[in-house]
Design a protein that fits this description.
- The chain is of the alpha+beta class.
- Helix content is about 35%, strand content about 25%.
- Helix 6 packs antiparallel against helix 11 and helix 9 runs antiparallel to helix 10.
- It is globular.
């Protein structure tokens, strides 16, 4: 039966796009359904400031009347101007087989080529500031908040479609029972001697000002990282407000030296615990199941750590990580994930391993170049039989 692409144009299409993982991944152990309402808002230009500087298209793939895949493609003007290269991204990719994946990648490529772009990177959902990577390991584990889920086999399909590896993103996990509290204390004290700084929690009463501080550190700390895309103040504030619904102020630490903020680390309670409990449906009464599950949540994900240039290479990252894990343990956290970490970010990987972190999941980014017409691209190759 032939494949048919359909562009997402209505709210009904968007909801089907967001909910497709329920169909393609729903029988997988550890599967967490999408939080449909929030995901639809994230992809709606009326609600997400990201679309003030970007355009996107979303597709569903059908075989007959059955929906068997999806993909998005994004042309981010802010990213293009920052990197000074004609590159776009593809994301939200799911497919039932290699043939469907090839068709989806072709649609994303053609969309980007029409806009004068010559390269695509992904899977990246909107930008590297959101969910990204294709899961290639840890399929038996339940993912944590804002981490992607994919079926086994898609890595091979990507290669069949001519996509090449760009970078791996790692998720490290540590269990409270495996951590040596005295070792965490020694790491924190040694780092404090090497680079004296005051570490405090975020001031919830002055939330807007604190968010401006975090945004300034973020822009400087991540500027040279692979795939970095600067967020506008509006976009950063929008993400912060969405996190505020679930965050614990004690799990956001800010380091100051002589009164100047020089770094921060942020962890969130794993909302996937609540999302799984309510089946991804908050309304009409799902939010009660969500709240009940979150009261007993003992998992956190460290989603970001940033240091100003003058604070790097002095052990402050290890200190912040150790302090955060210590605080989490005191608050009853039994499992912590640090994700994602670039595979070649050795200065970050070393302290994680020192405090007992172990690689749990791995996600992969792929890239492909294409010619001016958009037709001479590796992603157009038919999958091998």
């Amino acid at each position: 039966m032939s494949l048919r692409l359909q562009r997402v144009e209505s709210r009904r299409d968007l909801r089907r796009f967001v909910d497709l993982p329920r169909i393609l991944l729903g029988d997988r152990r550890g599967f967490v359904p999408p939080l449909t309402f929030e995901e639809c808002r994230r992809l709606d230009p009326r609600h997400n400031p990201f679309f003030a500087h970007a355009t996107a298209s979303f597709w569903l793939l059908y075989r007959g009347r059955e929906c068997v895949g999806r993909i998005s493609a994004v042309d981010d003007r802010l990213a293009r101007d920052f990197h000074r290269r004609p590159e776009g991204v593809f994301g939200h990719v799911l497919a039932r087989d290699a043939e469907g994946l090839a068709r989806l990648l072709g649609a994303a490529r053609d969309y980007l080529a029409e806009r004068g772009l010559r390269r695509m990177l992904g899977p990246i959902e909107l930008s590297m500031n959101y969910t990204c990577g294709l899961q290639i390991s840890g399929f038996d584990l339940q993912p944590m908040i804002d981490m992607p889920q994919h079926p086994e086999g898609m890595d091979a399909w990507m290669k069949e479609c001519g996509m090449r590896k760009a970078k791996d993103l790692l998720a490290y996990r540590s269990l409270a029972e495996d951590l040596d509290a005295s070792k965490l204390e020694r790491i924190a004290k040694a780092a404090a001697r090497r680079f004296p700084a005051e570490v405090r929690t975020i001031r919830n009463a002055d939330f807007d000002r604190e968010i401006r501080i975090l945004h300034e550190i973020y822009l400087s700390a991540w500027e040279k990282n692979f795939g970095f895309v600067p967020m506008s103040p509006e976009e950063f504030r929008s993400i912060a407000k969405s996190f505020r619904k679930i965050y614990d102020p004690e799990l956001c630490l800010i380091a100051e030296r002589n009164g100047k903020p020089v770094g921060f680390i942020l962890a969130l309670p794993d909302a996937n615990v609540g999302i799984k409990a309510c089946g991804g449906r908050l309304f009409p009464l799902g939010f009660l199941k969500f709240l009940a599950a979150m009261r007993s949540c003992r998992r956190t994900r460290v989603i970001t750590l940033g240091l100003l240039p003058e604070a790097r290479g002095k052990g402050l990252d290890a200190r912040l990580t150790a302090e955060l894990i210590r605080v989490g343990r005191a608050r009853g956290c039994l499992e912590t994930e640090l994700s994602w970490v670039l595979e070649d970010n050795i200065p970050m990987v070393k302290p994680i391993l020192r405090i007992g972190g172990k690689e749990a999941l791995r996600y992969r980014l792929y890239e492909a170049d294409f010619g001016e017409s958009g037709s001479a691209t590796a992603t157009t190759r038919s999958p091998k039989p």
